[in-house]
Every structure is written in C-alpha cells, then in structure tokens.
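Question: what's this shape?

___
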Amino acid sequence: MIEMLTVFDKANPFTKYQIDVIVKLGCYGIILFELIVSCLHQDFKQKSYTIEYLKEKFNCVDKYKNVAEFKRNVIDRAISDIHEYTTIRISYEQKKVGRSVSELLFSFEDISQKKIEETKEKGSNAPKDPFTNFKMSQKQLSLFASKIKKASGQDVEEIIKELSNVHLQSKHIDFLKVLDFVPSDWYTEAEIKKHPTPQQIAQEKLRAKQKAKEQAELEQAQLRQDYEVLLANAEEFVMANQKRIGIGIEKMYFEKGDYQGVVRIWERYLLSERDRKGFALLDEILSR
C-alpha cells in the first residue's frame, strides 16, 4: 500500500484526490483507480484489458482460476470502493474468444467534471442555427422517426440513431422542417464529443464485422474439434443414435461395424451447432 501511494505521489496524476481518500480504496481499488484515471484524458472513455494482464496487475494469477470469481472478488469489489469514495464511475462488459472470457472492456467517466461542464454551458449552448446540434426527447424521436419512415422507407431505429447523433442528423432536417419540428434544446460541447463521427461508425462496423467473422471461425474450429472427438468415440456415439440410421449406405456401414463411416455421413449435421443438438450422448462424450 505504501509503495502504491509513493508511486502515485511521484507521478502525481491524482492531485484532486487526497491521500486519505485513496487509502480507503484498498489495494484492489487503488490498482483499478490507477488504470482508469490514467485514461480519463481520452475522448472516448473506454479501455480494454485482457484477463491475463488484469490478473497479473492485481497479483492474483494463481488465486482465482475462475473468471467469475475474479470479477466478483477483485473487479466488482474495486469498483464498489471507487464509487463509494470518488467521483469516478466505472462499468464493464466481458469479451469472449470462443467460449472463454478473454478481456474486459471498461467504460468510465468523472461525474464531477461532467457536472462542472454542464453548469458552464447551460443556457449558452444554443447555436445561431437552431437545427445545429439539436436534441430531441424520446417521445419526439419516436414520433418524427415514424413520420420520416413513411416518406423515406428507412428503418425507424436507424432514423432514431441518426437523429440522436449531431454528425448524422442533418440528413433529416428538411423533413423535420416540413413536419414543423422546432428545436428547443441542444447538446453541450461535452455531449457532442461523445457522438461518434461517420468515420468512427464505419470503422466500428468494420471491426464488428471482422470480429463476427473471427468468432464464427473460432466456433467452427471448435465444432470441428468436437467432431474429431466423436469420430474417436464412433462406436459408442453411433450405438446411442441407432434410431437415426436409415437405409442405404448408412445402414451398410453400421452392419459392417464401420462406425466412423456412419459418423462421417453425419458430418454436416455435427458441424452445425443447431443441428447437432438432436444427437444423443453428444454432450456426455464431449465433456470427458
């Protein structure tokens, strides 16, 4: 604990927090506090860390083998302490590779800074052009998005996303004027910074597409691995699924005792997560 506070004092990234406040966070809280506060200068308040890195950082590589236990006893406890004693707010979501949690994506903000910025800008954020950076209530978004859909045929949810983003709402301004919408509230500069640009949205869609492709490849690789296990246990697996054996080549393989031949005929079903659910003894064999 003393070593941590000494490092903090030298680097001095936490001048707004007194030492006695930081001490209350406990060891885990201080470590997570250091990780998050060092990223607060970013425009997009998110940061991803691998499970391996976090376990090393929190010095519990061998203590919590189960990711759920690690999150509950380390990450959640640290966040709870930070929320109690500071103005930093943190949430996270887990990212998976295959069936395993590989990293945690943290989202965070300093609510004290947010309140200061909103106070400064309140009452002075209305632009000269009222249709620049305008806000719409949820009721307005639903109402006008439905009306725009009738004219454009565009999906309502997509229209709502565009109306809620200062970088995209301009495409609907002419419609809104015709529909007699008059802006009465506008986004602050701090809020505008959180709106992704078209380039960022395109990049995120590309990343999501690539990630989905990688996920599909990983799942297919796992299915292929499972298939090989079933081949290795072909006799037991086929005997448990005799009712699936029809006439023709399947039956011929079965009667000859060529159980792997039968499993190979079933290959396209066994390589489908949905189709393979109808097979008996599958989970039992794969769980060994």
Summary: The chain is about 55% helix and 10% strand. The longest helix spans residues 198-232. Strands lie at 46-50, 88-97, 100-110.
